[in-house]
Amino acid sequence: MKIKETPGRIVFKIINTIILVLLAFACLVPLWHVLMASISDPTYVTQHSGLILWPLHGEGHPVTLMGYQLVLNNNSLIRGYGNTIFYVVAGCILCIVFSSLAAYCMSRRKTIWMKYLIILLTFTMFFNGGLIPTYMVNKYLGIVNTRWVIIAMGLISIFNIIIIRTAFLSLPASLEESAQLDGAGHLTILFKIVLPLTKATIAVIALFYAVGKWNEYLTSAIYLTNRKLYPLQIILREILIESSGTNEFQVSQEMGGMDLYKKLIQYSTIIFATLPILCIYPFVQKYFVKGVMIGSIKG
Amino acid sequence: MRIKDIKKDWTRNKSVYLLAIPVILYFLIWNYLPMAGILLAFEDYSARGGIFFSEWIGLKNFIDFFQSYYLWRLFRNTIVLSIYSLIINFPAPIILALLLNEVENQYFKKVVQTISYMPYFVSTVVICGIITDFFAYDGALTDLLFKLHLIDQKKDMLSVKSAFRPIFVLSGTWQGIGYGSIIYLAALSGVDQELYEAAKIDGAGRWKQTIHITIPGIAPTIIIMLILTIGNLLNVAMEKVLLLYRPLTYETADVISTFVYRRGLIEGDFGYSTSVGLFNSVINMLLLFISNAISRKYSETSLF
Q1: CB within 8 Å of chain A, chain B residues 247-266
Q2: How close does chain B come to A106, measured CA to CA in Å?
Q3: What domains are there in chain B, each with its CATH number?
Q4: For the segment A177-188, what is each residue's pLDDT rounded down to a tens digit?
Q5: Which chain A residues contact residue B34 at CB under 8 A?
Q6: CATH code where residue A192 lies
Q7: Per-residue pLDDT tens over the stretch B130-143
Q8: What does the alpha-carbon distance between residue B257 and residue B277 come to, in Å, rounded to a whole number?
C-alpha cells in the first residue's frame, strides 16, 4: 500500500537528504583531501591553498608516490609502527585473558565474597587517584619508560569485566555443572567451554581495546622518553604537530630540500598511519553498534 | 552468615578465589594505591620522603591554588569549553539520529552512517594534525574563512586566542556526531511501532508523531547519556588540548587537566598538581551525583 505524501513531507525529505549528504561530505572530505594531496606533486602542494579534491599534477610534475617512499625509508616511523603493533597485540591478549578470568570468577553464583568484590571494583569507575599519584605508583614499581607501563595502563577495566560477566551469566548453569562433573577444572571450563560460546562479546571487547590502543597517545607521552619504545602516535605528533620529526626523513638538497617535501610527507604519513583502521572499521561496524548497545545497557 | 558457612565457602570455592588474585592485585596496585597517593595533595613532596613521609602541610596546596593567578583562568576555560561542548555536541548526535530515522532508503542511510563514523576512528594525533594543517596560514579552512569574509586577513588560526574554542568544540562535533548517534538509533528502533499506527489513526502528522512518540520513546536514553556527560563535564578532552594549544593561546585554552600535566610532570611539582587534580575530580563526582539525583526525582530515570 502506498501512502500518499503531503507536499510538506516531500520538502522535508529533500532538505533531510541534502543535510545528510552535506554531513557525509564534511566527514569524508578532510581525509580525502589528505589522500589526494599525498599523491600530488610536492611543488603544487606547497603552493596550493584550499581543498585538494583531485591529485595536483602538471607538465613535468606527474602524480607521485614519493611521499610514501620517504615514509617507508624513515626508521623511526617504521619502528613506531612495529611498537604499536606489539602494544596492540600483547595488550589485547592480556586484556582478554585477565578480563575474562575476572568475569568468570565474578560470575560464580555460589560464592560469598565475589559480590563484595564487584562493588569494591565498581567504585574505581567513579573515582581514581589521578594523573600524578598513578605516575608515582609506576615510578615506585620501576616500570616508567619500559614497555610494561604501556601494557599495564588501562589493561583491565571493571567496565569490560561487567560486560563479559553479563555474557557469561547468560549461559545455562547446567553446562558448567556437567563439565565439572566430568572433572574439568575452572580454567578448562573457561577456555574450552565458556569463552567459545561468548566469542561475539569477547570480539567486541578486543576490537574496542585494539582501536583504543592503536590510537593511544597520552599514556606514552607521559611515561616514555626512550625513543626506541615510542609507539606510532608519538612519532606522528613529532611529524604532524611539532614538525621536528620531519628532520629524520632522507631528503637531499638535490631533491629540493625539506621545505618542498614537508607537507607531502605529512600527508603521506597520515594515510600510512590511519589506513589499517580505515580499511577495517566499515567491515566490523556491526560489532561497534553491538558494543555500544551492550555498553549502554550496563552504563 | 556464620563461621561455618565461610569455611564451607572457602573449601568449595578456594580455586575461584585463587584465580581472582591476579586481577585483584591489578586493581590494588593501579586503582587503589594511587588513591593513597592523594595524600600528596596535603604534602610538600620531597623525593626523600616519598608519598608517605613528606612534610605534612595540610591545605596549603589548595589555598595556594585558590589564591593563584591561574585559578580563574583555568576554571573559566574548563567550564566554558565544557559548556560549549555540552550545548553543541550533546544534541548533535540526537538530531542526526532523528534525521537518519526519517530516511526510507536503507542503502543511503547505511552509507551516510558508515561515513559519519569514520572521524571517530581516526586517532586524536592525526585529527589534530589535520586541524593544524587546515587552520595554518594557507590552510584549506583558513582559506575558506577568508573567502567568506569571516576573518579579515589570513593567519595561523591556532595562534589566535579567540579561535581556539570554536575550533576545539566544532572539531569535536565533527569527530563525535556519527558515532554518538549509534546509541540513539538503537533506542529509536526500540520504539513501539504500534504507537505510530495509533497516532496516524488519530490524525497526528509526522511532526506531532516525532514530538509525542519518538522523543518520549528515546528520552530515557537521552537522560542517561546526559547524566554521564555531566559527570564528565570537567574532563575536557585533555589529549586534544595538549596537542592544539600553544603558549600564545593558554589564555583561552589551558584547562585544569593540562595545567596538572605541565605543573606536575614537566615541572615536577607533585603535591601542588595532585591537589589541583583532586579538586577537579571531586567536582566531577559531585556533578555526577547531583545530576543523577535530580534526574531520579523528576524523571524516574537514573544511573544508580
Answers
A1: 257, 260-261, 264-265
A2: 8
A3: 61-299 (1.10.3720.10)
A4: 888 788 778 888
A5: 128-130, 133-134, 136-137
A6: 1.10.3720.10
A7: 999 889 888 888 88
A8: 7
